[in-house]
Amino acid sequence: MNKNQTKETESKGVTMDQVMSKVSGLIIQKADRQEVHDMILGKANKVDTEMSLRWVDLLHKMVN
């Protein structure tokens, strides 16, 4: 992939469905299918959600 293709790829938006599809595919290769399915359908508690949002914010700041 050349430099222009990389910039085009980075500038395109990515939907959460695309991310989940890719991540789910990778995890399923490494983990038990039922466990992964249960994790995807499960609900996060407030503390986990807040920590995840903090990590996303931190990563966003690092990228910028």
The number of E-state strands comes to 0
List the domain count as a whole number.
1
Question: What portion of residues belong to β-strands?
Answer: under 5%
Order of helices and strands: HHHH
Question: If you average the pLDDT, what whole number results?
Answer: 76
Intertermini distance: 23 Å
The biggest beta sheet, please?
none
Poorly predicted tracts of residues? none
Overall, the morphology is: globular
Count of separate DSSP helical elements: 4
Helix content range of the residues, please? Answer: over 70%
Overview of the structural elements:
This protein has 4 helices and no strands. The chain has 64 residues and is mainly alpha-helical. The chain has one domain (16-63).
Key features of this structure:
64 residues, mainly alpha, 80% helix, 0% strand, globular
Briefly summarize what is shown:
This protein has one domain (16-63). The protein is 80% helix and 0% strand.
Topology of this protein?
Blueprint: H1 3-11, H2 16-30, H3 33-41, H4 46-63
